[in-house]
Design a protein that fits this description.
By secondary structure, the chain is α/β, with parallel strands linked by helices. It has a domain of 206 residues: Rossmann fold, CATH 3.40.50. 41% of the residues lie in helices and 16% in strands. It contains 11 helices and 12 strands. Helix 1 links the parallel strand 1 and strand 2.
């Protein structure tokens, strides 16, 4: 029996990977709509787009963290009000909503992984805007709304930290990278695979609605991620030098600790995502990353 899926934000890094993952499912009939094709801040347009779909994967978002600090109202229109429009439309159409959120809804001051029911407390405008979206899903879709928080996402499509490190390796002998922020680097293709599995489990009643943490197992720092990226790419990891966050002041404060627990996956009978090192090793085999690594190994730096 076929199921109609809608992927919003389909032109982004995660959206493209979700489309690719669902394309391999013979029972999935998939519609992908980019930001240009679907403005989630328009409730009438959202209602029309959702009608006829059984599962909606919301990858549409304002993702510019520093930009949100300067334009919180605009960020919240997308990450909060836009998500409310989607949740309303899903409620009217009896559709399941898988909504992508972030560890930034949490205060980032813990020392142990945050469980899914940990108190929220964002430290920046981006986190507040995403929390507004979470609250809309919980309020409007208590039985068919799934909030999947992710963090430190990288992938073959679009700008991300891993690609940036490899690009900079071609131009600089050493790189200073923050070593006092802790998180879980997550490959967008691995998360897409997990989202597809969650959607299928939701359709059969095998996964309860609520909050899930879609991040890799394990933990590291930005410095640790950069060094492992270099090591796996045949570059000297000692070229990465650890520094404090104060070396790179940003408009939006960053939480120091974004490590998340994964209990909901186990309760749903689904395994959590693999270790971050294993995900990174798989991701770096993709042509987009392999080409960057080759260029970094063969470029003469000053």
């Amino acid at each position: 029996m076929t199921t109609n899926w809608l992927v919003t934000g389909a032109g982004g890094m995660l959206g493209q990977d979700v489309l690719a993952e669902l394309a391999a499912d013979p029972d999935a009939v998939v519609t992908g709509l980019s930001r240009q094709q679907l403005d989630i801040t328009d409730p009438a347009v959202v209602r029309t787009a959702v009608t006829g779909h059984r599962v909606v994967v919301n990858c549409a978002a304002w993702t510019d963290v520093d930009g949100a600090e300067r334009a919180e109202t605009a960020a919240t229109a997308v990450n909060g009000t836009g998500v409310r429009h989607l949740a309303h439309a899903c409620a009217d159409s009896d559709a399941i909503l898988l909504h992508i959120s972030t560890d930034y809804v949490l205060p980032g001051d813990a020392r142990r992984p945050y469980p899914e029911d940990a108190p929220t407390g964002p430290v920046n405008a981006y986190g507040r805007s995403k929390l507004a979206g979470e609250r809309a899903v919980v309020e409007l879709l208590p039985h068919t709304g799934y909030i999947v928080r992710t963090a430190w996402l990288y992938g073959a499509h679009g700008t991300n930290f891993v690609a940036t490190m490899l690009e900079l390796a071609s131009r600089h002998e050493t790189l200073d990278v923050v070593a006092d922020q802790h998180g879980q680097p997550t490959w967008s293709r691995a998360l897409a695979r997990q989202l597809a599995a969650l959607g299928r489990a939701a359709l059969t009643g095998g996964a309860p609605a609520g909050i899930y943490h879609g991040t890799a197992a394990g933990r590291t720092t930005w410095c640790g991620l950069a060094r492992e990226t270099f090591r796996l790419s045949g570059l000297d990891p000692e070229r990465i030098r650890p520094v404090g966050s104060d070396k790179f002041p940003r408009p939006a404060p960053r939480p120091a600790f974004g490590v998340l627990g994964h209990g909901s996956w186990l309760r749903a009978g689904l395994g959590p995502l693999p270790q971050w090192e294993d995900q990174l090793a798989s991701a770096l085999k993709a042509p987009a990353f392999a080409d960057l690594a080759h260029a970094a190994r063969t470029t003469q730096r000053p």
